[in-house]
Structures
1.
Amino acid sequence: MTMIHHARGGLGLTKLRLMSLGLLTLLLALVFIATGCLPFVRKGPAEITQVGTLGSVEITARLLEVPEGAIIERRHYDYAAVLKYEVLEIHRGEHVPTVIYIAHYNPFKPRSQAADARVVTLGGTVTRFEAGQIHRMALEPSAEQHYLGGVINLYLEREAEDPWWALWCDLAEPKP
């Protein structure tokens, strides 16, 4: 009888240790999330974003215009549309011009829904492209290096440069 009682006491102590370890792990996870120590969590609004980790370039830019015919809703045709931006701030990367042309994949869809089996690394908080909006974007320098499908580029005859490729596009607040 003494051995059974002793075994039960040992089992209760083990359960208590496991519960304590679980609570400690949960507490540490909450502290990391609250302080922004996890790389995919931004301070401020509770929003998960990859704008700071994707691409070789990260900028904040103003969308200068959305030319008529650049964004068309084609449910069964995937394409990229080139839009013109004024760069306001460079967060990462080099050799970014003041005026930049950026290709957005499936631009009629919200950025959070634009990715598919062909282009999997896309996202963001922009739901609709409107002239004057400020966007914080993760980019790659050449759309041609990242996408081989159809592109609507209404600037092609006026500008000779290869458009940049948008991986992530968040709506940003203008600086005061």
2.
Amino acid sequence: EVSVRFKFEAAPYPDTEPSFFTDYVVVDGDCQAYSVAVPAQGSNTFTSYLLFIADEDRDIPVVVQNVVIGGDVPTCDAGGDTDTGGDTDTGGDTDTGDTNPNAAVWVPFGDGAFDGSGSEIDGDTFMYPSTATGWAGFANDNQDLYPLSFPAAGTLNFTASSDQPVTLKFKFEYQPYPNVDPNFETATVAVDGACQAYSVAIPSQSVTNTYSSYLMYIIERDIPVTVSNVVIGGDVPTCETAESEPEPEPEPEPETNDPLVTPFNITSSSNAAGFTFAGVSCELSTSADDTCDGAGALSATQAVYVSSSVMNGSQKVVTLSYATDDSTLTGLGIRLHFDSTEMSLVSIDNFLATSKFFEPTLTDVASDTDNYDDNTETDTVLLASWLAMFGNWPGSTSEDLVTLTFDML
């Protein structure tokens, strides 16, 4: 078992005060949900959020995931990986070992410390010849996978084919021979016939155990077997995916800019846990007032939209508003994307003060190099954010966030 606690500070060291610790939480055994109370702190704000392992628990690895302030209690099924150093869910892609960085890359024992074992490999075809030693097999040479750990049970997936029935098994060792303990083997898997997907269970191991030797053995001698896409966790691979090249994506149609309108797009840099973000973009007229779409029906959603866009002489005044179905969330971060060749930001006014975290100025206008709105016409971005650590933002289900004034070019 191991004890953990959390600390909140006004800012990172040395400007830490005010600060406070939570109580310790004792973690022991398989993955489960834990909670700890965060006491009320009045008007104090905190921008440093730390996790500590108790001093008496040095050298004990602990898996901690889905650390969320407020919201629903997370489940281990929704947590993704459960490793303590190396990947135990290295899935996702189903490419061969040459292209999937998470797949095992096999070499005969004879290519390493087990010189002269006699195991044979030709591409993805493996054989345990009658002339090979009794301990001959194949070792993973993808060092990026190590160290592996299995605090929760998992699955090893692969594709295989053989003209004759043949049996495989996998073994995980602490380190290559002779420092092999702790170690364990999977159950055997019988391969027979044309290519298909196979899976074998990986039993859970002590949270303190790690493995840096990952081996494959063929039980029967002199029977070639083709094995590929050996991946721990992830999606079960298919032979079609493993053996075919993906279809090339069609070339995008060239974008043409309408000189009478200009895009104004809204994306999220962060939003409340358990909520989706809806940025309601709008094509703004370069010379007239606009009527943009509103937030629409909301369900567990934070929406930002253009509530007003009016011309004032040669300038356009744009008001951004917020709508949600829960007035007690933890905040929001937004990006505002526009085309600086058609409109130039000249003022930022009426910024919502409630729990403001980052209030931008004109000097914060930046080049839109990351293209989060997936629109090459917008070349400029402005960020803004609000943070309410204890979930009281913004206090109502609708608010005006900010007013922007642009010179129309």
